[in-house]
Amino acid sequence: RRRGKSEELHHIIQSGGMQSFFTLFQSSSDSPVLLTVSALNVAYLVPSYTDEVTHKDVMVMIDCLYYLVQSSSSRILGAVDDLDITPTEVFTACVEAMQFVWANCFAPKFLSSDLNVDDNDCFPRQRVSPKRRSFGDNDDVDFCQLVNSFASLSVVSVSLDCEDAVGPDKSTYHDFADILQSLCAVECCRGLVMKEGVMSILLKWMRSEDRALELVAANALRDLTASKHSYTAGWVHSEWLNDGQAIADVVERLRSPDLEVKRCMAEIVSCLSGVPHTRAAIIEAEGIKCLGHVLVNVNMTDTLDDRIAIAVGNSLLNLATC
Hints:
Layout: H1 6-14, H2 17-26, H3 32-45, H4 55-70, H5 75-82, H6 87-111, E1 115-118, E2 123-126, H7 143-156, H8 160-166, H9 171-184, H10 187-195, H11 198-206, H12 211-225, H13 230-243, H14 246-252, H15 259-272, H16 276-284, H17 287-296, H18 306-320
Antiparallel strand pairs: 1-2
Helix pairs in contact: 2-3, 2-4, 3-4, 3-6, 4-6, 4-7, 6-9, 9-12, 11-12, 12-15, 15-18, 17-18
């Protein structure tokens, strides 16, 4: 049950252990204990996986992790108690497995010039020949399905229930948040995380006293707001307005002593100032005054970098033409 040494885990994988746990998980829907045992062993084995993996196998990995994360505050707790495994251990195993799946199964494809985005549905379209794919050839799961499922898993993993269940050590929760930020940085994933309700989570983090979460939120919100996909961009802009206080909070954070947070806020305002229905909200929140403060009253110990200067200049220009 527990994480073993690296060579032991490799031996289990080479002996067909991973596939056995896949099968056990898929055939144990009526047994929470077997589901937990099989899913947890998959989570432990994933970071040691070195073989070529099919789309279908990646989907089962995601399903196992989703089960563990989603059930953290309900069914799994009884099973975990029986197995003498703490929720913290479960979440740690899940986040390490998710980091591996992201780094090895998704990030390389998103960085590839062979992956493009279809603006009609905001899903990635593969133009990679089978011989050049990093996944196996005998797949019956489309890559878009994997992206959808991983996006859903990433948002569920930072839900309020999971945050409470992680415990006092928030490093694991911060790792989940970092994965979500990575998804928000990818154009074809932005609509997917929006569909999962990510904005409310990010706005909560932006207002948090936890600097790590505030910084993740600042970067993720900046990336979502800067989406080039018209449908996603319109959706994000609507969410900014629907919150009521969100745009005013962004304007206020233009005064943040944290340079990176200030930079992200300035770039968010720059994007929103170019849209008529959000431009008015910026003016109402005294955005012009705050933007002027950023340019004129820069702290002597701070440096106004080019990105902030450009963002503030664009914002003032947009607001002046309304």
